[in-house]
Amino acid sequence: MTSTLPVILKAQQVNTLYFMEDVPVRHILNPSFEPVTDYYLSLPVIGLTQFNIGNNSVSLKDVVYNVGGRTITFLDPQGDKNLFYNTLKPNTVVRTDLQTNLISFGFRHESDYWTFTMTEKLLGTINLPKDLFRISLFGAQNILNNSFDATGLQGDISAYTESAVGYATQLDKKWRVGGKLKLLVGSANVSNHNNLVKLNIGIGQVQLEGNGSASYSGPVQLIPVNNSQSISAVTPTTLGGWLKPSGLGAGFDIGCEYQLNKEIKLSAALNDVGFIHWSANALDYHSTANYNFSGITLFNNNSTVGSFQDIYNQLVNRNVLSDTIVSALRKSLNNTSSNNSYITATTAKLNLGFEYNLIQDKLNLGLLSYSQLFRFILTEELTASMNSHPLHWLDASLSYSIVNGRFSTYGAGLGVKTGFIHWFVAADYIPFYKASLSLSDLGFKNSGINIPIPYNSTTFNLSAGMNIVFDKMKPKSSRGLIHSKERNDCNCEWF
Fold first, then answer.
1. Cα–Cα distance between 275 and 209 in angstroms, integer?
2. How far is CA 79 from CA 132, 433, 457, in A?
3. Domains of the chain by range and CATH?
4. pLDDT single digits (tens) 323-371
5. How many helices, marked H, and strands, marked E, lie in the chain?
6. In angstroms, what CA-CA distances link 470 with 26, 52, 110, 485?
């Protein structure tokens, strides 16, 4: 067995939720956070579902825009490929993820709070180096030599179930700490990692050097055939075969809150530190290439080449051109495979929070720094928010984010308590600015329909849920530890 770290699993969060204190499931951002109610129950799917799609490089306005009353892309003759290319970062990280609640509940015991969560996660990430776009958009511009480096081309997609037990406690008047232990049950994973991918195009010669690997584990068995030149698939015949775990792992979260003074509260959390060991139907596929092509040298020896038509027939009709290129590429490839298990690491996320209380339990300002690392590529966000709790049943937040040094759009969150049900919805990148896309430009002639689409943000996310919340009824004569919110919900009084 070999143990490698070929991939980082990457999850995204909705930053606006961080300072919305009435949201029961807010502890997923910092395990030291406790719900304001004694008990909460979060049902499957409707309790918490969130998704994210985006990248760290371009927004839709860099791809689609209006010129002379016509909606075009940057690839249109009137478009600007150079402007699009210059907008790209050295590495464009495209990510998408979906997380949905299976079950979650929590309860308070004196100054402690216990939580249990089970969440299904589907995460996908791909990294696109800028040279991929350069060769695609402009081709070989230099007459003498063109060098392209696509070593950074890599990605992964993973599905797993996360079960977590959390504990938070009040150490003293200033400190509150918390942590979670997690069991990770993997459903499927596929990823690739390149050590070298370089293409050099010169006069009379094309050279490709490559060295990379791909790893897979899942319910479908992949079998290399023809000396690893191709792969066949065997699917499970029973439901149990599809549901059987493909990997097991563990992880943890740690967090703390510090009440500096009456107005200022500081917080920090390190989340999703862990790993998954993949073993079911594991396949490790390694490929190296040293490809050199300097022209077509082979003709059919049984044919007579005496005219231009003969040359054309040999090159095109008899596929000499394509056969020569493909044959040379195949000969340059060296593919090997093994059934070794492998390890993937979950992406550790760091949250650093600052909260200033303007009006006690009514209005505060928050500042959150959120960082995560994908294969030595750092993604950072800074989110400022204004959070209001004007009524005991209403919690609202407005936010604004700076993502990787690029200004984004506004975010917002809303929490409403109706009896024993708490509803919430939050997003970091609400598309206030929209472009109008005509269906006529997409080939639907004379449709007369324009579709408004967001164009000023690189990312869109959304988190929403409905949770059952309730408190213990206590006699008003009881006295003891006062909850930090010091609010009276459902005609109950903390003691």
1. 32
2. 19, 21, 20
3. 8-71+92-133+155-192+209-282+339-470 (2.40.160)
4. 455 555 666 677 788 888 999 888 889 999 999 999 887 899 999 999 8
5. 5, 27
6. 16, 30, 16, 15
